[in-house]
Amino acid sequence: MLKIAIDAVGGDYYPQNPVKGAIMVLEEREDIHIILLGPEELVQNEIAKQGYSGDRLTVVNAPEIIGMDESPSVALKTKKHSSIAIGLTMHAQGKCDAFFSAGNTGALLGASMFILGKIEGVLRPTIGSIYPSIEGNKLMLDVGANIDVKPEALVQFGIMGKVFVENILGIKNPKLGLMNIGEEEEKGREAVRQAYAMLRERDDFVGNIEGRDVMKAKADVYICDGFVGNLLLKLGESIPENILEIIRRSERAKTLSKEELGLIKSVMLDALAPFDYQLIGGVPFLGINGVSMVGHGGSTPLAIKNSILSAEKIVLKKVNEQIKAALN
Amino acid sequence: MLKIAIDAVGGDYYPQNPVKGAIMVLEEREDIHIILLGPEELVQNEIAKQGYSGDRLTVVNAPEIIGMDESPSVALKTKKHSSIAIGLTMHAQGKCDAFFSAGNTGALLGASMFILGKIEGVLRPTIGSIYPSIEGNKLMLDVGANIDVKPEALVQFGIMGKVFVENILGIKNPKLGLMNIGEEEEKGREAVRQAYAMLRERDDFVGNIEGRDVMKAKADVYICDGFVGNLLLKLGESIPENILEIIRRSERAKTLSKEELGLIKSVMLDALAPFDYQLIGGVPFLGINGVSMVGHGGSTPLAIKNSILSAEKIVLKKVNEQIKAALN
């Protein structure tokens, strides 16, 4: 039976959301065992409160909590008994098959690098994020782990991202696109131009992707450095809320009935649910020698459930072995 | 009387849109003279077709047309009689007060640098763009003219942008924000971190702005390099069309009547009109020793009219003198 370890004290709503997400998985599936890590009493109380009593849930005591805004390097040095440190160590020792946290991304990445290490041949492990489009979810990477990126690493992001979207998003023959400020190959920063020259030889490369084309699904994997990706991701995440607010404040809104405004809001929220980071499951650090997944701090129980089920897929489909093969 | 020169063969819809925009201004205002530049017969025919017969419209023959996708450096070398080259030369000679084109941005910037030069003290002239927010229009800059930018130049972008939004957008006490991937000052690329350290001393600096905060109006001037700005701008421009398409394809849309879908579309387009680049007037190259404005290739006649009226404001408010003073 697959064992997946969950940080019970990660994210903005702990322990309730991680515990709830874990219980949702346990209620839906009979072949997954979950390990919850956090201060034992806190976690046990929450489990009791939410009322799970089966035997596929274990609590491992991890008394220290790393805050969302804590410096990753300081946290990892001073908090050896955090859920992140203990959970990843258990994973390295083979005591669980994957680890998920909605907590401090930097700390999780740092600890994953230190405790699990990189897949052989990987220059820089990367973190991607689901990006919604008119044709469903796509993957953008990197979205914040790597600020300055060499062209060779950008190409690897694309290759690793492709394995992810094929296996986890179920996209057949995924296409790679390079985020840039024009279609022509001589556009953009030096590293981007060099990455273009390397990617050009690949059949799965569709060329440069401009900002206007991300939501148009011109590719399945959007390659960029973490500075650009983080800005584009967060702008995208902010669309539903801000567009609704712009509509609410518009002159036109003053001519509408309460029912009409309600309809518009409700249709937009339904249609734009794919943009809602609180519903989107986590994405693994690609290139890490293990399955270490991070979710948004605001992850709902449903997002955490989805993350756990993605982690299962990553393990079962041997994504890391496929990455290793694809990089060679 | 103010004389404003317009590229009659710039943009995707010439000569009709530039000619129409010019005539709209002439019909609304009696104190502006417009000079239209382009192949004389083409332009005269269009004016006759649209039916303007007053005496505040002059045509200056500029037989060569620079294409939207033409290499700026090649175009400027080989087409000495383009509307851009002749119009800017007239401006440099004092024969007109400003020049506007919806044409090839790179060619216009290159020619502006060569023919008009920089304002004393300016490191890099920059091109900004209006960015809509829940509290109205803001300015993002640079959006494509400068890919790799030194920290000192980023700071100057902010100072020049501030003069623009105060005078042209009418924002009182504008605040400067630095596009970054986190709120903390140690976040981001080296140049961005150094720019933060310089900006920190200013009372008008509100700190780093994340992607999610652009539309929230956390600042009035968003400072970034042209790679980041171009991607954020084009993603923003694509929002209305793509969001409508995502709604149309959603499961929820299948439950709606034709009337309900029509209402949603119409309200969204009304409310999101500020995002519509076809309606937004041009923005000047800030830092150029003259008034050289560029508009979106898809500019409608209304956008061109708005651009001409902005150009007038820039001249009358002596924006360049203010920039010179602000940089000292």
TrEMBL record, chains A, B:
- One GO BP: phospholipid biosynthetic process
Q: What domain of life does the UniProt record list for this protein's source?
A: Bacteria
Q: Which InterPro entries match?
A: FA_synthesis, Phospholipid_synth_PlsX-like
Q: Cite the SUPFAM superfamilies for this sequence.
A: Isocitrate/Isopropylmalate dehydrogenase-like (SSF53659)
Where is the major localization of this protein? cytoplasm
Q: Per the record, what is one GO cellular component?
A: cytoplasm
Q: Which reaction does it catalyse?
A: a fatty acyl-[ACP] + phosphate = an acyl phosphate + holo-[ACP]
GO molecular function terms listed in the Swiss-Prot or TrEMBL record = phosphate:acyl-[acyl carrier protein] acyltransferase activity
**Biological function:** Catalyzes the reversible formation of acyl-phosphate (acyl-PO(4)) from acyl-[acyl-carrier-protein] (acyl-ACP). This enzyme utilizes acyl-ACP as fatty acyl donor, but not acyl-CoA.
Q: How does it assemble?
A: Homodimer. Probably interacts with PlsY.
Family named by the database record:
Belongs to the PlsX family.
Q: What is this protein called?
A: Phosphate acyltransferase
Species name: Cyclonatronum proteinivorum
Lineage per the UniProt record: Bacteria, Pseudomonadati, Balneolota, Balneolia, Balneolales
